[in-house]
Write a structure and sequence with these properties.
The structure holds two protein chains of two kinds. Chain A has helices at 2-40, 45-48, 174-180; strands at 64-71, 78-82, 86-89, 94-103, 109-118, 126-130, 137-139, 144-153, 163-172. By secondary structure, chain A is an alpha+beta fold. In chain A, the strands form two sheets. A five-stranded mixed beta sheet of chain A has the order 3-1-9-5-7, with no helix packed on it. Chain A is flat, with a radius of gyration of 23 Å. The termini of chain A are far apart. Residues 176-181 of chain A have low confidence and may be disordered. Chain B is an all-alpha fold. Helix content of chain B is 64%, strand content 1%. Chain B has 16 helices and two strands. Chain B has helices at residues 27-30, 35-63, 74-109, 117-136, 162-190, 203-234, 248-265, 268-282, 289-302, 318-330, 332-346, 355-378, 380-386, 390-420, 426-452, 467-496, and strands at residues 6-7, 532-533. Chain B is globular. Chain B starts with 5 loop residues before the first strand and ends with a strand. Classes of the chains: A alpha+beta, B mainly alpha.
Chain lengths: 181, 534
């Protein structure tokens, strides 16, 4: 079968390159995914964590309920909760909500809160002008702190939504914070 | 396959003197480069994995026999569901099809062997190591992987020392599949006998050629996804860790970009098998050969653009939901073409019901049931209801067990006399068929009802309203499981001896293809001189 040898070798090589290309494609899906998130506003993490340049718009008479949810992952020793579990909000008006976090350990640490909005379609209408989630937050041992988030719900929020959830997960991640920025 | 006729078939006993036969003892298997030996090893390995994976399924069904927690603790239950899937997909179904490819592709295209025999040896021998790695985790203190075979983060990132073992086992299985696939493509593209143009190839070869392309496209993507898990776990990257700005949902997208073509990797060769068997026992040519080939290609293409239907509930734009719903439903068109073509092949045929034909017809019926429940799951609003329920379990088991596994059994019953040179016990094989068919329906059909009534999957306990159908399903599981011992016995019997099979094996039928021009069993080195195909 010597006649086949050269042809087999070159085809094998090309197929190996094809496989290697798809291995690379798997990783290329990561930036591609982020682009898609930006375009559609779904799971758009960068937007969730940057301050929006908005001013108060004419306040509408709609009343929206925003539920505040906090959670801590299994690792780490934290206390983290909203001061008011629900806030009644008028679209276009600047509102604020407060959270309390406490480092339960006897060492200083750094925490990073990661926000998320449900339903996801509302993400693009939920604009934060100030948030503790924009930057890592250093904590002393046993330190307890109060955090503020200020936000405006865009009056263009679709009419089928009258209840939003703003959820924060507080991660203790001194080494991850640099990567997140 | 319009006119395939072999002329001047050489490689028969006559030229045995130029060649040594198989090596003696263990060297024959460890250093195997002969496609028949490697095919046999793949098939036996897959049979062993089928029983190991089956045992795990029986542990799951035993626990689910009645409500409450009786036999195993929930962590071990989760380990069993996870391992059952990994073992059955990567250990039983995929190697079985690679084994069939090894045995049959060279015989069907008139090639003396696979194109890359040493790589063939390597790709087989990786598998025992991969599964030793995977199965050994059961004996770890932390237990085996229990986060589901899909290994979604963040749960997968909370596994103990089983985590790297599982990941490396998957890397090895992937490497093995990629090498096997490259071998198939090179063999089919370069080693066909003169006159065997692409559109004269048996549909089994076509099914495998396209499967092989799917494999080399998506197995590397899976390798990439699990590598990202690995670096998230050990090197502080944040592909999927929300804390560092990653997104666990992205894993699901990458995983199912692999996962959906994987579904077709497990079924396209089965389509090929059925396309060989039905014409033989209908004594007619396959109806619509060309459309069969195009349908396989169309399904393969569509399999790349439907992945997100596995994850409608994670939230995506309406346009995305519509796109994935409609493209998923579109798959029903080429699949329907195939189902109708097989039916048309049987129409006005002179049918007989030998064991391979029984399994092929059962495939046709029950794969279609699985296809229909798949269409139901494709409907976004309905999927929100069915997602992660037993309805999904019923759906994919219908396409995989009476689908892929029945096709593998049909293939074994079809070609076993060709491989061993002995007919097997037809009465026992028919008994095996009826036991399997009755019990497999008893096993999986009630799971549709359970799912529609709201029973979630992957949970070791359930509400008492689900008790009756779970009991029925578990009885079906044990019946189906024990019926497979009969299968192993029939195969063993045929290897040991039995009535001599003729070259054509199915003398009453109308088998097409070059493999039937060889003796049964075929000489150790067949088609040394390429047959001519007109």
């Amino acid at each position: 079968m010597s006649t086949h040898k050269a042809a087999n070798r070159s085809l094998t090589l090309r197929l190996c390159l094809f496989s290697a290309g798809f291995f690379g494609f798997g990783f290329a899906l990561v930036p591609l995914y982020n682009v898609l998130c930006d375009v559609t506003g779904y799971g758009d993490r960068s937007k969730l964590r940057t301050a929006a340049e908005v001013v108060e718009a004419p306040v509408s008479d709609r009343l929206i309920t925003v539920e505040m949810v906090s959670s801590v992952p299994a690792v780490g020793d934290w206390e983290f909760r909203p001061l008011d579990p629900t806030v009644e909000v008028r679209p276009g008006k600047l509102h604020e909500a407060r959270f309390v976090a406490k480092n339960l350990r006897s060492q200083p640490t750094v925490a990073q809160a990661i926000p998320s909005i449900a339903p996801q379609q509302a993400t693009r209408y939920f604009q934060k002008t100030e948030c503790f989630c924009f930057t890592p937050q250093p904590f002393e041992a046993h330190e307890s702190r109060e955090f503020v988030v200020r936000f405006i719900v865009d009056p263009r929020l679709p009419y089928n939504m009258d209840r939003l959830t703003l959820a924060y997960t507080m991660y203790e991640a001194p080494d991850k914070v640099a990567l997140a920025q | 396959m319009s006119t395939v006729q072999a002329h001047g078939v050489a490689g028969h006993h006559a030229d045995a003197h130029d060649h040594h036969g198989p090596e003696k003892g263990w060297r024959r298997w460890v250093f195997a480069t002969n496609h028949k030996d490697i095919g046999t090893m793949y098939l036996l390995f897959s049979l062993a994995m089928f029983f190991i994976g089956g045992l795990m399924a029986l542990i799951v069904r035993a626990e689910l026999f009645q409500p409450g927690l009786q036999l195993v603790d929930p962590y071990f239950f989760n380990t069993m569901t996870t391992m059952h899937a990994l073992v059955m997909i990567f250990g039983a179904v995929m190697p079985a099809f690679v084994g069939l490819a090894n045995w049959m592709i060279p015989l069907q295209i008139g090639a003396p062997d696979m194109a890359l025999p040493r790589m063939n040896n390597f790709s087989f021998w990786i598998l025992p190591f991969a599964f030793t790695l995977l199965l050994s985790t059961l004996f770890f203190e932390s237990g085996g992987p229990a986060g589901g075979w899909t290994m979604y983060p963040p749960l997968a990132l909370q596994m103990g020392e089983t985590f790297p073992m599982t990941i490396f086992a998957i890397h090895l299985m992937g490497a093995s599949s990629i090498m096997g696939a490259i071998n198939v493509i090179v063999t089919v593209m370069n080693m066909r006998a003169p006159g065997m143009s692409l559109l004269k190839m048996p549909v089994f070869v076509w099914g495998w050629l396209i499967t092989a392309y799917l494999l080399i496209a998506v197995m590397p993507v899976l390798a990439g996804a699990v590598t990202m898990l690995l670096t998230d776990y050990y090197f502080g990257t944040s592909f999927f860790q929300a804390a560092g700005g990653g997104d666990p949902v992205m894993y699901q997208h990458i995983f199912w970009f692999f996962g959906h073509p994987e579904v077709y990797i497990m079924i396209l060769p089965a389509f090929g098998v059925v396309s060989e068997i039905i014409p033989t026992f209908s004594r007619k040519r396959l109806f619509g050969y060309d459309t069969m080939v195009y349908a396989i290609a169309a399904i393969a293409f569509l399999s790349f653009i439907v992945w997100a239907h596995h994850m409608f509930t994670v939230g995506m734009p309406l346009a995305g939901q519509m796109f994935f719903m409609l493209s998923t439903m579109l798959i029903a068109v080429p699949t329907g073409v195939k189902i109708f073509n097989w039916t048309a092949t049987m129409f006005k045929g002179s049918l007989t019901f030998e064991p391979p034909m029984l399994f092929a017809i059962a495939f046709l019926f029950m794969f279609t049931i699985g296809g229909f429940s798949g269409l139901m799951l494709a409907i976004v609003p309905a999927d929100f209801q069915y997602h992660d329920s037993y309805f999904v379990v019923a759906h994919f088991h219908y396409v995989l067990v009476p689908g892929a596994v029945f096709a593998i059994m049909a293939a074994v019953y079809y070609w076993l006399p060709k491989w061993t040179g002995h007919m097997y016990n037809m009465k026992l094989a028919k008994l095996h068929f009826w036991l399997s068919t009755i019990f497999v329906n008893l096993l999986f059909f009630p799971q549709h009802f359970l799912g529609l009534a709201g029973m979630p999957r992957r949970i070791p306990d359930y509400s008492t309203q689900f008790a009756d159908w779970n009991l029925v399903s578990s009885i079906g599981a044990f019946g189906f499981g024990f019926a497979q011992l009969l299968f192993a016995y029939i195969v063993w019997q045929s290897i040991r001896g039995g009535a001599k099979a003729t070259d054509k094996v199915w003398d009453g039928g109308a088998p097409q293809g070059l493999e039937w021009t060889l003796s049964s069993p075929p000489p150790y080195h067949s088609f040394e001189v390429a047959p001519e195909v007109k």
